[in-house]
Amino acid sequence: MVDDNTVLISGYAKLPNNITAEVVYDTLVLAILFDRRTGIVIEAEVSMVTELTKHFIKELLTGYNLNDGPDGLIRLFDLHYLGNAKKALETAVRMVCTKYQDYKATQQNAG
User: Fold this and answer.
1) pTM tops 0.85, yes or no
2) What is the mean pLDDT of each run of 10 residues along the chain (111 residues)?
3) Run of H or E residues at 74
4) What's the gap between Cα 45 and its chain centre?
5) Nearest-CA neighbor of 93 among 25, 41, 16, 18?
6) What is the pLDDT, as a whole number, of residue 1?
């Protein structure tokens, strides 16, 4: 799965107080592996407590095109994720998308 065209990018956000994930992790970490040629998410992982939540978020993210920016993902979370860490997740997604745009600009300037 990892080759010259895969890149890992991550985003972070503070979790809200008094939820289980905050007690365990303090900070939400979202890691995304994407294809640098297309911007499509190949795999994703998030620091949540339950395996079901981790799997669900992975499924929402996998196949998403980072070139479309964060708004489409945020809409998906608004429709399908009603957990207490939603705002932290959205913040991490925005950070990932910003880092992706920075990465693309760097690659264009280098090439």
Assistant:
1) yes
2) 90 76 69 97 92 94 96 93 90 96 90 64
3) helix 71-80
4) 8
5) 41
6) 65
The residue with tokens 């010259």 is 4
Structure confidence at residue 98 (pLDDT): 96
The single-letter code of the amino acid at 80 is: H
DSSP class of residue 94 equals: H
> Taking the CB of residue 98, how many other CB atoms lie within 10 A of it?
14
3-state secondary structure of 98: helix
| Cα–Cα distance for residue pair 19/7, rounded to 1 Å | 31
Residues with Cβ within 8 Å of residue 26, at least 6 apart in sequence: 14, 15
Read off φ and ψ for residue 43, nearest 5 degrees: -155, 155
